Automatic annotation (TrEMBL), chain A:
UniProt topology in membrane: Multi-pass membrane protein
Natural source organism: Rhizobium straminoryzae
GO cellular component terms attached to this protein's record: plasma membrane
Sequence intervals crossing the membrane: 20-42, 54-72, 79-100, 106-126, 176-202, 230-250, 262-279, 286-306, 312-328
CDD domains: TM_PBP1_transp_AraH_like (cd06579)
Keywords: Cell membrane, Membrane, Transmembrane, Transmembrane helix
Single Gene Ontology MF annotation: transmembrane transporter activity
Keyword Cytoplasm attached: no
Localisation: Cell membrane
Pfam families, sorted: BPD_transp_2 (PF02653)
Name this polypeptide is given: ABC transporter permease
From TrEMBL, chain B:
The name this protein goes by in its record: Sugar ABC transporter ATP-binding protein
Membrane topology value: Peripheral membrane protein
UniProt KW keywords: ATP-binding, Cell membrane, Membrane, Nucleotide-binding, Repeat, Sugar transport, Translocase, Transport
A GO molecular-function descriptor: ATP hydrolysis activity
Transmembrane segments: none
Entry keyword annotation includes Nucleotide-binding: yes
InterPro entries linked: AAA+_ATPase, ABC_carbohydrate_import_ATPase, ABC_transporter-like_ATP-bd, ABC_transporter-like_CS, P-loop_NTPase
Cellular component GO terms held in the UniProt record: plasma membrane
Domain spans labelled ABC transporter: 13-248, 260-503
Organism encoding this protein: Rhizobium straminoryzae
Subcellular location: Cell membrane
Family recorded in the similarity comment: Belongs to the ABC transporter superfamily.
Length: 336, 508
């Protein structure tokens, strides 16, 4: 008999069909449908290798989108994440290239810590500009998007920043290409990050406050919730998630440029919205977000494996997906 | 008909035996009302007396359930949704209907723009606007944006708009509620000028001094019934107040519990001022139910929000259990045992898209934290307790709060506030928009709280509620605390006199 806002999708409620939250179920239904379509298009699609490959490649967007779920649930928006990835990753590589620590193991550890700190600070900056500066998050993060991107271009002098030490490269490589008990590391990271995020959002006081602030700032304020603190922390969580994505991104290519992470913010927001989180704030759905990120990657994969749609149309298809997702969300809300 | 002593003129507009029901609830009972050419007719009555409904019927925004309307003595059925403006019958709403981003001239001609060869004739419209404003003696710039105007000027633009449509009868619903004294004087001057030119006004207000000042005739409504229509010169404020009230208090209210005079003072407010409220001081004792009465906009909510730290203070001090309470420290206030229940249930009180439990525990989540996470079982227990204590009745526990009845929402909001375990509870409009059965439950709950040693402040626009519940009543008017009533002074006539500005005590 519990009111269990936390178990979305995982436990479909008994009782009448009317109680089933269609918005929570819809993304998973869409994912299942896509897998069926994929299997029909190309038998190779359904192979474990291919699906694991898709999941691995979705890792960056998925992890960033988990952070975006917090920001969007609390009623804000962060457009700077793509630029933030480029900026944070560039700093990480530059630090490792600087050679201030001789021992490669220690160097790598220090670089990872630094990445997490810089990511959080970038998020903190977004949060403070939005809350203390009282600037619409759309504009505030549009500004920092330009700043982070510009700083990256400046750091790279318009070219690329490449990890020079092959020893470090070798040491760091398994963080993206390795696997634990047969599970690729990026997938493992997605699962851990999402599980922690779900716990925070559904099972802690802070998570409840995020929902309240996103649903109604006024109600939150009149309930004694420190609205600006909650919003700022959501931006910091976003920054942390970007840092984690960077930790996976750097070992993959070992290089960044001014074009790293371009349009990732749109993919992250799409994943969040496809996952059933309302763009106007309130109900956040972390597992739905992951599902949304898989859907985006799967669509690309199916297009690649099929012959009847050009893979150059992938951007158009992803754009259509976000529009369709919004339409579906609205029609489901009306019924509820 | 009720044409009293104005000769054999035909009324411009009149209502004969008009009744109105909304669903099961009848709000007007066979009311007669008429407006003579070139008169200002004041329509007075308490909240819920049916004034607004009558005005809406006379201006075509509602249709009567029975009875008929006459225009120039001929039966008429007014077109709906403001189309009666074409007949010269214009209602100026309490909230202005002006688009903030348009200029004054654009606003005046909104929806009936003058064109030449299909192009807006802006010069003509500006000149015409200027002509009307000059006629009204208003200095408002016809090119100014509405958003830059003072409230009184906006009111003037509304009136200019009415004039530009050749108004014959202008309905004004509490036009001075948002105006300063000076602005009110300007408005009244314009009204007198237009009256001399033959325009009629129906003036809905709570302020009896303004009735005396401006109107030619007064009609009093009470509980949806017509009570009296008379020339203003034959009445005085006291007799009007007398006519407006005069109803017996029923057993809706529990027995009052008088605290001992030597009980501890739990809350004392000293010379508190905000942007609107000026220099308010009072004390609250343990086990007391203190009422705050006054007209809408008199500053009651502002003062309570300033006390609890939800709104900035400009001056003054709030002392809780002998310790000063910092300004803008709402969470600190809650920790110290102070609770505030908003009157805005849907906008500030409850998360309408969430379930009952999330709402109930929102303000007291720390009670349900075990090892850093929220314990669902503990929250469930709290919900079960609250449902019993406040008699919250829902068919399905997982219903979204937005779909619950107003009464259940109100009880849930009260339960939410009480979850913080407060000792001093400020309840703003405890029974707004709920049925009488739930009202009674809430009244008994408030009385029980006081008996248990809690102190309660009830802010209410419903006078019977304040009278029935409270052992002391503070009356606010235009940001000032004008009276603190006790004992036999707690009656509608006296409260009305203070609230309408006919009487005031020295601040204390």
């Amino acid at each position: 008999m519990s009111i269990n806002s936390g178990s979305e999708g995982a436990t479909i409620r008994r009782r009448s069909w009317r109680d089933v939250d269609l918005r929570a179920v819809a993304p998973f239904a869409a994912l299942a449908l896509l897998i069926v379509i994929g299997a029909l298009v190309n038998p190779n699609f359904i192979s474990i290798t291919n699906l694991a490959n898709v999941a691995t490649r979705s890792a960056f967007i998925a992890i960033i989108a988990v952070g975006a779920t917090f920001v969007i649930s609390s009623g804000d928006l962060d457009l700077s994440v793509g630029s933030m990835v480029a900026f944070v990753a560039s700093l990480m590589i530059l630090f490792m290239n600087s050679g201030v620590i001789a021992d490669p193991g220690l160097m790598l550890a220090a670089a990872m810590v630094l990445t997490v700190v810089i990511g959080s600070l970038c998020g903190l900056a977004n949060g403070l500009i939005t809350t203390v500066g009282r600037i619409e998050p759309f504009i505030a993060t549009l500004g920092t998007m330009g700043i982070y991107r510009g700083l990256t271009t400046w750091l790279s002098q318009g070219g690329a920043i490449t990890l020079r030490s092959s020893e470090l490269q070798g040491l760091y490589r398994p963080a993206y290409f390795g696997s634990v008990f047969g599970l690729p590391v990026p997938i493992l990271v997605i699962l851990i990050v999402t599980a922690i995020a779900a716990f925070i959002l559904y099972r802690t006081r802070y998570g409840r406050h995020v929902t309240a602030v996103g649903s109604s700032r006024d109600v939150a304020r009149y309930s004694g919730i420190a609205v600006n603190r909650v919003r700022t922390i959501a931006f910091i969580i976003q920054g942390l998630c970007v840092a984690i994505a960077v930790l996976l991104y750097v070992p993959r290519l070992g290089s960044t440029s001014a074009t790293t992470g371009i349009l990732w913010e749109l993919q992250a927001i799409t994943a969040v919205v496809v996952g059933g989180t309302a763009l106007k704030g309130g109900a956040g759905r972390v597992w739905g977000t992951i599902c949304g990120a898989f859907i985006l990657e799967l669509v690309g994969n199916i297009m690649l494996l099929s012959n009847f749609i050009s893979e150059y149309l992938i951007g158009a298809i992803q754009g259509s997906i976000i529009i369709i997702a919004m339409l579906v969300q609205r029609s489901l809300t009306r019924k509820a | 008909m009720t044409t009293t002593g104005e000769g054999a003129q035909t009324p411009v507009l009149s209502a004969e035996r008009v009744s109105k029901s909304f669903g099961e609830v009848q709000v007007l009972f066979s009311v007669d009302f008429d407006v003579m050419p070139g008169e200002v007719h004041a329509l007075v009555g308490e909240n819920g007396a049916g004034k607004s409904t009558l005005v809406k019927i006379l201006s075509g925004f509602e249709s009567p359930s029975s009875g008929r309307l006459l225009l120039d003595g001929e039966p008429v059925s007014l077109p709906a949704n403001g189309d009666a403006e074409a007949l010269g019958i214009i209602l100026i709403h309490q909230e202005f209907n002006l688009a903030e981003h348009l200029t004054v001239a654009e606003s005046l001609f909104l929806g009936r723009e003058v064109t030449r060869f299909g192009i807006l004739d802006r010069r003509f419209m500006r000149a015409e606007t200027r002509r009307i404003l000059d006629m009204l003696g208003s200095h408002v710039d016809e090119n100014a944006l509405i958003s830059t105007l003072a409230v009184a000027d906006k009111q003037m633009v509304e009136i200019a708009k009415a004039i530009s449509r050749d108004a014959r009868v202008i309905f004004m619903d509490e036009p001075t509620a948002v105006l300063s004294r000076e602005e009110t004087d300007i408005l009244f001057d314009q009204v007198r000028k237009l009256r001399a030119a033959g325009t009629s006004f129906v003036f809905v207000t709570h302020k009896l001094n303004e009735v005396m000042e401006l109107s030619d005739r007064v009609t009093v409504l009470r509980d949806g019934q017509w009570i009296k229509t008379a020339p203003t010169r034959l009445l005085d404020s006291d007799s009007i107040a007398q006519l407006m009230v005069g109803r017996e208090l029923s057993s809706l209210y529990p027995a009052k519990h008088e605290p001992d005079v030597d009980e501890d003072v739990v809350l004392s407010v000293r010379a508190l001022s905000t942007a609107y409220v000026k220099d308010v001081s009072f004390e609250l004792r343990k086990g007391e139910v203190l009422g705050f009465s006054g007209l809408i906009g008199s500053g009651r909510t502002e003062i309570m929000e300033a006390i609890t730290g939800l709104r900035p203070r400009l001056a003054g001090e709030v002392v809780v259990y002998g310790e000063p309470l910092a300004a803008e420290g709402f969470r600190e206030a809650v920790r110290r045992g102070l609770a505030y229940m908003t009157k805005d249930r849907k906008g500030r009180g409850l998360l309408l898209d969430e379930g009952m439990t999330a709402n109930l525990t929102l303000q007291s989540l720390e009670r349900h934290v075990r090892y850093g996470y929220l314990d669902p079982a503990s929250e469930r227990e709290a919900m079960a307790r609250a449902k019993r204590r406040f008699d919250i009745r829902v068919r399905d526990d997982r219903v979204r709060v937005g779909r619950m009845s107003g009464g259940n929402q109100q009880k849930l909001m009260l339960a939410k506030v009480m979850e913080t375990g407060p000792k001093i509870i400020i309840i703003d409009e405890p029974t707004r928009g709920i049925d009488v059965g739930t009202k009674q439950q809430i009244y008994h709950f408030i009385a029980a709280l006081a008996r248990d040693g809690c102190s309660v402040i009830v802010v209410s626009s419903e006078m019977p509620e304040v009278i029935g519940l409270c052992t002391r009543v503070a009356v606010m008017r235009e940001g000032h605390l004008v009276g603190m009533l006790e004992g036999d002074d707690i009656n509608e006539q006296t409260i009305m006199r203070y609230a309408a500005g006919l009487k005031r005590q020295a601040a204390g």
